[in-house]
Amino acid sequence: MIASPRNALPFDIFQLEAGGRVLWLEAAANLEHAHSRVHELAKSQPAEFIIVNLETGDKLIMNRNIQNGVTSMHGADDPAWKEIYLEALREEDPKKLLDKVLAAETAIVERLRALRLSPEASTNADAEQVELAEAAQVLLSVKNKKLNFPDWTPSPETEARP
């Protein structure tokens, strides 16, 4: 779960670190101020930032292109969890894989929470929940096969016992 110090400010700004960890930076009073702060922060530390609306759960991901200074943004139509999840699946270094899998699991849980708490249920929410469940299963498989986590899935013999 992405945690931040609780205060009255409705927007939190996070930075995605190289290892897949999420670092809380600060809170902002409104989206414009958060957007402005990310632009300021990106000048000194080009990175990927996430602005989270604590009231709705909506996330805005901002990347700064180092070559030309252009900032790209991804909103609700391109959920943040997917990129974090895909990054975990692409990771080949076993030393970095666990951190990326854990970051992806956290992002999935946060997205499920946001969908549950959203006052306006999206027509695509059910489909996205299925996609989230499938992604969680894939991550469990990665943990079992690549990270040697124990497989706690009951065998047919144990399920048949009284």
Please characterize this protein's 3D structure.
- The protein has 162 residues and is an alpha+beta fold.
- The protein folds into two domains: 11-74, no CATH class; 80-146, no CATH class.
- It has helices at 31-44, 80-90, 94-117, 125-146, 156-160; strands at residues 11-16, 22-28, 48-53, 59-64, 71-74.
- Strand 1 and strand 2 form a beta hairpin.
- The chain starts with 10 loop residues before the first strand and ends with a helix.
Compute the CA-based radius of gyration.
Answer: 18 Å
Number of strands: 5
- Averaging pLDDT over every residue, what do you get? 77
The coarse silhouette is globular
Give keywords.
disordered N terminus; 2 domains; 5 helices; 162 residues; alpha+beta
Strand-helix topology:
Layout: E1 11-16, E2 22-28, H1 31-44, E3 48-53, E4 59-64, E5 71-74, H2 80-90, H3 94-117, H4 125-146, H5 156-160
Antiparallel strand pairs: 1-2, 1-3, 3-4, 4-5
Helix pairs in contact: 2-3, 3-4
Task: Summarize, please.
The chain is α+β, with helices and mostly antiparallel strands.
